[in-house]
Design goal:
By secondary structure, the chain is of the alpha+beta class. It has a single domain (about 5-70), classed as Alpha-Beta Plaits. Helices cover about 15% and strands about 20% of the residues. It is built from two helices and four strands. The N and C termini lie close together (about 10 Å). Bound molecules: iron/sulfur cluster (2 copies). One iron/sulfur cluster (SF4) binds next to α1.
């Protein structure tokens, strides 16, 4: 299990990439293989095992798309 689980409410994402810029580990990118209901490519996380749980991505997101949970 990864240390943190980072989830994206994909249908609420507008693909602004603020979260990708905010991530100090550069783990987030738009998923160009998916188009959400609003017509945007939603953001997603690549190597979840490298997430340090800093919450920068979630704090930066203007639409509260991202949730980070610490795994025990
Ligand atoms: S919590 Fe921090 S390290 Fe993890 S994906 Fe978000 S910005 Fe990146
Ligand atoms: S900051 Fe929020 S709305 Fe913008 S790309 Fe990231 S998850 Fe999507």
């Amino acid at each position: 299990m990864t240390k943190f689980t980072v989830t994206f409410d994909e249908n609420e994402c507008k693909g602004c990439e603020l979260c990708a810029v905010a991530c100090p580990k550069k783990l987030i990118a738009l998923n160009l293989e998916i188009t959400n209901d609003a017509g945007y490519n939603p953001a997603g996380i690549g190597k979840m095992e490298e997430c340090i749980g800093c919450q920068s991505c979630a704090r930066m997101c203007p639409d509260c798309v991202i949730t980070i949970v610490k795994n025990d």
